[in-house]
Amino acid sequence: MKDTVINAKLISFSKLRVTVFSSFPFDPKSFSLKEGGKNLKMVLEKQNSLSSILVADFHLAQDLPLGGDYSLLVPGYGLVPLDVDDAPTFPRFDDLYAYDGDDLGASYRKEGTSFALWAPLASRVTLQYRLPSSSAWSRLAMERGEKGVFRAEVKGDCEGMEYLFEIVNSGVSRIATDLYAKASTPNGASSVVLDFSKLKVDLHEDRLPNCPNRTDAIVYEGSVRDLTSDPRTDIEHKGRFLGLIERNRKNEAGDPVGFDYLLSLGFTHLQLLPFYDFKTVDEEQPKKSYNWGYDPAQFFVPEGSYASDVLDPSSRILDLKKMVAAFHENGIRIIMDVVYNHVYSFEDSAFQKTVPNYYFRQRRNGSFASTSGCGDDFASERKMGRKLILDCCAWWIDQYGVDGFRFDLMGILDVETLNAIEDLAKKRKPSFFLHGEGWNMGGEVNLPLGTMDNYAAIPGYGFFNDFFRETVKRLYCQDFSCFQDAKAAYASSSLNFIRPARFLDARQSTNYIECHDNATYFDFVSRWHPDWDEGKKLRAVLGATCFVLLSFGVPFLHAGQEIGLSKKGLENTYNKGDEYNRFDYSLLPSRSWMVEKIRKFIEMRKRLTPLHAYCPSCIDKLLDVGEEGPCLRSSFLLREGKSERKIIVFFNPGETDYNIPDGGRKLLLCSEPCLDEKATPGNLVPAFSATVFEE
Q1: Which residues, 6 or more positions from 284, have their beta carbon under 8 angstroms from its beta carbon?
Q2: How far apart are CA 551 and CA 417, in angstroms?
Q3: Do the Cβ atoms of 59 and 15 come closer than 8 Å?
Q4: CA-to-CA separations, 257 to 142, 246, 262, 315, in angstroms, rounded
Q5: Helices 592-607 and 258-265: crossing angle, nearest 10°?
Q6: Confidence (pLDDT) at 388
Q7: Could you tell me if 166 and 132 are in contact, meaning their C-beta atoms sit under 8 angstroms apart?
Q8: Distance (Å, whole) CA 178 – CA 354
Q9: Where are the beta strands (DSSP E) in 353-493?
Q10: What distance in Å separates the CA atoms of residue 536 and residue 516, rounded to the nearest whole number?
């Protein structure tokens, strides 16, 4: 019947709806539900019909167990597969089907590898696999077990074996990679079995200095590719994990670049843009495309374009471990930028192919929610969505030794999941670093999310402080109307001081003026003051950066900020290519004065322990902040043993120098490039500067 369409859909565990579009009349009393050759009892509950349209609801004698091969028999038409894809939205779905075992994915043993896939809607799952010694694919039917987990085992040593799952949901067969895959062929074409006992690397976690609080940290953000791709350096593995740890690499002028340069800055934590497997860079031809990696594909697998040999599935794993180990050995912790709020394309994702309509939030009208505009919202509040995130976080900590997570669009993730991540992470590493973007973007769920408004519900997390960002950016562009806001920002936004407190304490304030998806501060200044020469712009950048480093809270710098890098005026350059994003090491000779100042201010930040205070009442007691002349002035006591010194910091965002009327101070450090601290009297605060005195 070419003009007839019939759909049978499960709308609750005990009810199904049949919709008929046809000019031919059908009698719903004659319909029957079948599982194989067996009839299942159902009773017509109600029907509505219009010309050429029939809608009939049937009540089942008992709840329908998922996993059967169900079809509706329509006399005179034939069998119609029962669509069960909406079952994940039923109220008791998680209670009935959520699985809490720890064996999902491929579990390797030399004698055989076992596979477990959670696919509770599926009527059939087939394991497709190919051993390294074979060019042909084999097939093995998987057996359905408790909670809809399908299992199979392949005997013998399966190391290097490629595998996929053929999953039949609602009569439709789809091929999917393993959501829990730990290794992959290029571009995620298939999942791979590896023996991880052969991939152990000493991660040198014993070499990391103590860092009990986030306010002891100085975070530096960059990308594996951006930090290593400059063609005017002799870095061998450009754009790759190993390129980031090559020693003795130089630019054309002979300046240290890459690993040596990064270590020389003195920061404590290197935050790297996503290095799990992402979608839109061709791993076999990475130079032909570019992306920061906020388009996740495989959550447990490192990105293949960063591997030294993408054709070897173990290469990306070993290379990443070696990279982490090298930074650990030199006292630097690694923060991993993670994206659990969306995937690149939900329709084509292994999530949707494996369990349709489970892993993504839907609006009331049934459409999928894309709150961020970056992709469909991941349903972190569902038990198996939360479990996958937690299992993934544990894998990166346990296997790769990462020391922190930065959560992209954290305001889309639910509070319960975030607190569970903190509990998991800090049991493994008490000093584990957690922060993220707490923007309030709304959402399709009526439960607390990880926004700044809910700061008290996730006390172990920091938030990117956009109030600090916008205030300090304006201040050093000479918007003097923001002086009062600058005082509150300087004090970490955790005191009821000038502005209401935004956080529980200073540990929750990640202070920054620039990160990967903003305009660089140099470009921001250029937009505000196109008439300024380069020297003025760079001094403003340096002064504002020093404001970040000497404020209460957690200082955060973006790679290249310390030399005033530009993205040619663009902001969100996530796919604009190396030309806009790479670290331009050729600027080091002409801007070495900026780098040297940043090194000194980072070192001073470490020494000025009062700036590490985080308790609001403690900050309130020790800090005196106000205005003097054109400057914001702060002072606090520095106690070292039995001695006590008063430290005074002046921030002068103006274009004219300021002479402090009363002398008697010792100049410790100033961001002004032409100033000789040893010869300059202790009362000069140069324009655009941050200047530190002792009295």
Answers
A1: 186, 187, 310
A2: 31
A3: yes
A4: 52, 9, 8, 24
A5: 40
A6: 98
A7: no
A8: 9
A9: 404-407, 433-436, 462-464
A10: 23
CA distance linking residue 294 with residue 408, whole number of Å: 8
For residues 516 and 542, the answer to whether their CB atoms sit within 8 Å is: no
The position carrying tokens 């201010």 is 601
Q: What is the DSSP string of 250-316?
A: BBTTS-B-HHHHHHHH--SEEEES--EEESSS-TTSGGG----S-SEEEEEEE-GGGSS-TTSTTHH
Q: Which of 437, 485, 505, 514 is catalytic?
A: 437
Torsion sign (Cα): 568, 573, 579, 581: positive
CB 354 within 8 A of CB 291: no
Q: Which two tokens stand for residue 308?
A: 């030294």
Cα–Cα distance, 570 to 576 (Å, whole number)? 9
Beta bridge partners of 511: 555
Beta-carbon contacts of residue 28 (< 8 Å; ≥ 6 apart): 18, 44, 47, 54, 56, 58
Helix runs in 88-200, H state only:
93-97
Q: In sequence order, what E strands does 37-187 have?
A: 38-40, 42-50, 53-60, 70-74, 78-83, 105-109, 112-118, 124-130, 138-141, 143-144, 149-155, 162-169, 172-176
408 is known as an active-site residue: yes
Q: How far apart are CA 241 and CA 256, in angstroms?
A: 18
Catalytic residue among 178, 377, 403, 408: 408
Confidence at residue 345, expressed as pLDDT on a 0 to 100 scale: 80
Beta-bridge partner residues of 562: none
Cα–Cα distance measured from residue 290 to residue 183, given in angstroms and rounded to the nearest whole number: 22
Closest CA to 542 of 688, 370, 385: 688
Structure token digits, residue 418: 């975030």
DSSP percent split of the chain into helix, strand, coil, nearest 5: 25, 30, 45
Tell me the C-alpha distance between 418 and 345, whole Å.
24
Which one-letter DSSP state was computed for residue 662? S
Q: How far apart are CA 623 and CA 634, in angstroms?
A: 7
- Size (the chain), residues: 695
If residue 488 lies in a helix (H) or strand (E), which one and from where to where?
helix 483-490
Evaluate whether 552 touches 625 at the Cβ level (below 8 Å).
Answer: no
Half-sphere exposure of 156 (CA within 13 A, CB side): 7
Instruction: Report the C-alpha gap between 510 and 489 in whole angstroms.
Output: 11
For residue 551, give the amino acid letter. Answer: S
pLDDT in tens, 230-282: 999 999 999 999 999 999 999 999 999 999 999 999 999 999 999 999 999 99
Active site residue 672: no
Closest CA relative to residue 490, chosen from 407, 410, 549, 427: 549
Closest CA to 385 of 362, 422, 363, 355: 355
Q: Alpha carbon 577 to chain centroid distance?
A: 20
Q: Please say whether the beta carbons of 455 and 236 come within 8 A.
A: no
Q: Which residues, given as ranges, of the chain have pLDDT below 70? A: 1, 443
Per-residue pLDDT at 662: 81
What is the longest distance spanned by two Cα atoms in the chain?
102
CA distance linking residue 522 with residue 473, whole number of Å: 10
Q: Which residues contact 607 (CB under 8 A, 6 or more apart)?
A: none
Give the residue from 421, 525, 419 showing the smallest Cα distance to 479.
525
Cα–Cα distance list, 148 to 86, 124, 200, 386 (Å): 16, 10, 33, 17
CA distances from 395 to 398, 425, 476, 548, 561 (A): 5, 11, 43, 33, 32
- Is the whole-model pTM more than 0.90? yes
